[in-house]
Amino acid sequence: MQYFKVKKLGEGTYAVIYLAKAINIDTSIKITFDDPGAHFERLVAIKRIKKTEWGNGLEVNAIREIKALKSLKHDNLLKMEDIFVYKDDIHMVLEYVEYSLEQIIKCNEIIIMPSDIKSWVYMLLNGLNHMHDNFILHRDLKPNNLLINKDGILKLADFGLSRKITERMTPNAVTRWYRAPEMLLGQTQFGFKSDIWSVGVIMAEMFLRFPFLAAETDIQQLETICKVLGTPKNYAYFDTQMQTFKIRNYPKTNLKNIFTAVSEDAIDLLEKMLQINPADRIGIEDALSHEYFSTKPYATLPHLLPKPKDPK
Fold first, then answer.
1. What global pTM score does this model have?
2. CA–CA separation, 208 vs 218, rounded Å?
């Protein structure tokens, strides 16, 4: 397979992403500068690891992402189709996915129905469940990392911060607004339920159409969480940190007062995912079998889900 770079899609800390045309040619020369026009097999995304990082030793997040993409195969996870070296740069060829959940949430022209949210949350949990079955935490779940293709299938992407559950963790992985309390508190031993917290925050954002728990510092983030969900009781690690973070005792807010038009079973699932103490937080299998997914309105079929007019 040979690839022609069409345009730059974006740039991150350690990589540049391009839209490219995949040309079905049996050749060792992976990159071509001859535009095939309409004569190509499909569009792909090429993630080029930046030369400065590659020259000084491969960036650790790139290694993690490559390892995760090579080991994980699931309909709700972004697929890596190829990997090669060109001019000393590592190139990861990924399936091209047109939209992101963040795009949909922010698009005022799109009406999001409760059944749509149910479909996206179920696909998100399905993909995450496959990661957890393989003992891998995602650790960076947020709407911008949840991609949706033209057929409406949601795919988890950006595995640069993913970790094997056996590895020592760093608490500052997830984007702050979606970071579990145990990570904000600085714990280095945390498990799969830190991802579940992120799913709960994302689900809440789908209903609200704006970020649910947003703050500018870790201390403010903990304060924001406690103001909404109440300062936890019987959470020993939190108790030892309260004086350090100067967090007051807050009563729990009734989520029905925030999510006024949301069904009781949806609020029940939200509450179970958004338990501050991870020991009390719902596990992924119980979340997938929660009554929310088996009651009306039933989840929208993927191909009927709303999408923006223009790809990202």
1. 0.90
2. 22
Non-local (6+) Cβ contacts of 21 within 8 A are 3, 4, 6, 35, 36, 40, 41, 42, 43, 44
pLDDT tens-digit readout, 144-199: 999 999 999 999 998 766 655 555 555 555 579 999 998 888 777 778 999 999 99
CA nearest 228: which of 207, 201, 196? 201
Local structure of 174: helix, strand or coil: coil
- pLDDT > 80? residue 14: no
Residues 6 or more apart whose CB falls under 8 angstroms from that of 233 comprise none
Residues in CB range of 61: below 8 A, 6 or more apart: 13, 14, 160, 161
Structure confidence at residue 53 (pLDDT): 46
Please give the C-alpha separations between residue 215 and each of 187, 232, 268, 302, 305, in angstroms, as whole numbers. Answer: 20, 19, 25, 33, 31
Residue type, 244: T
Judged by average pLDDT, the poorest of 101-105, 207-211, 219-223 is: 219-223
DSSP state string for 122-159: HHHHHHHHHHHHTTEE-----GGGEEE-TT--EEE---
Domains and CATH numbers, the chain: 2-95 (3.30.200.20), 100-304 (1.10.510.10)
Kindly list the distances between the CA atom of residue 196 and the CA atoms of 149, 219, 247, 270, 307, in Å, as whole numbers in the listed order.
Answer: 23, 21, 24, 10, 25
The residues annotated with a catalytic role in the active site are 140
Q: Are 204 and 238 in contact (CB under 8 A)?
A: no
Contact 192, 209 (CB under 8 A): no
201 DSSP assignment: H
Q: What is the CA radius of gyration of the chain?
A: 21
Please write the tens of the pLDDT for every residue from 118-151.
Answer: 999 999 999 999 999 988 888 889 999 999 999 9
What the block records as the tokens of 81 is 């189709």
Residue type, 2: Q
The string of pLDDT tens digits covering residues 216-253 is: 998 899 999 999 999 887 666 666 666 566 778 899 99
The strand pairing partners of 156, in sequence order, are: 77, 146
